[in-house]
Design a protein that fits this description.
Two copies of one chain form a homodimer.
Chain A lengths: L11 H19 L6 H8 L3 H7 L3 H25 L4 H11 L8 H13 L3 H27 L9 H20 L7 H16 L6
The first copy, chain A, binds a DNA duplex through helix 3.
Amino acid sequence: MKVVVVAQRKSRSDRRIDLIDAARRAIIRHGVDGVQLSHVAEEAGLTSGAVLYHYPDLRELLVEAQHAGMERFYEQRLRQLAKLTDPVEKLVVTIRSGLPTGPLDPDVRLLNELGGAAGRNRVYGVLLTSLYDRQVSMYQAILDTGAALGVFRLSADSVTISRNLVALEDAYGYRITARHPLIGPDEAAELILSYARAATGNDLAH
Amino acid sequence: MKVVVVAQRKSRSDRRIDLIDAARRAIIRHGVDGVQLSHVAEEAGLTSGAVLYHYPDLRELLVEAQHAGMERFYEQRLRQLAKLTDPVEKLVVTIRSGLPTGPLDPDVRLLNELGGAAGRNRVYGVLLTSLYDRQVSMYQAILDTGAALGVFRLSADSVTISRNLVALEDAYGYRITARHPLIGPDEAAELILSYARAATGNDLAH
DNA sequence: CATCGATTTGAACAGGAATTCAAAAACGGA
DNA sequence: TCCGTTTTTGAATTCCTGTTCAAATCGATG
């Protein structure tokens, strides 16, 4: 008696979502340039042929996976922000939400994979740049309203400060995923807050 | 008449230096995880067999290439620093020397390739961490002497400020190599200087 | 200039990955 | 339940990469 087990069949769109998620995991495991069809198939619990059926070009799937990962990361930050009203609280929470929870944080790991590739691949460069700009705008809104309310006294224009805040998040994300022995999520948050305090003239105690 | 052209023969150590350099270029072209033996061979003007003769394990060569690239980057920064005495000048020049000259700057491109891989590969993580720490020390020395001379009035301890300065360099290095349309070397330097001014209480005009 | 060891080539080989495709399986609807 | 369509498998094929190794070449040395 031969029993053949076939992977659960799914609708077109459900399967694509599965594959994008599988690709995300595969990229984290093997890197954007090291990932291969079989890795994605394995993560998805399918055969290479099935993956190819949905995405004839692996590179397209990878781009979609990166895109989806970015969007998820950004949406998550916005969602946390939406719950708050106090500019001080907003700023503190947002700084936190830009950092990985630890060295294995999948969202940040995925974004970090893009860093190097963005220098070689224009598509990735554009993706990463657009994420950066949106994050900057996010901070700007917080800083501007805080300044309007008289809670913050900005040491420079809000664009400059916002760009630096996002830059610091990015960089500490790399340090944390690289397992710096002295810099974890808490320490990184404190380092960025140190800058934020100087830039806003507020001690950011909430 | 058959003419066989053989690559110029070189001494063991010369050839190894060549290969490390070729590997550096190959990594920049294809990524740490996308680079393959033939890429390195091509960059070196040799055949795969010849590369394998010197480095039976490609991964070892790649690690050496990354290591060499890091050291070169760091040494270069130290060298520029050694020429100066004024803390203000030192700080300004050092900030500059941590940024790529443009999107194609090979040294920064190479370092950026490491970012993602450091989350997966412990060796790369250690390399990158040690570079970061040394750069932090470099800034610390500048800030501490400036403070001792009364030129700087630090807004936080020198470790904190130094960590943030290196973090900002790193992050803007990524932005520049990803070809951010608004942030080039000059703009990045100005952004970091904005922080440095606030942190040192010095307007850093030289 | 003859020899010897070190270096490089080039071809052969092995393993693995992407791609193709016919057949099988699963699903939805009649 | 049966049928037509969609999805998945698995095997065959092709392509590519790493690896091995004998032969050729080079450079130094006596």
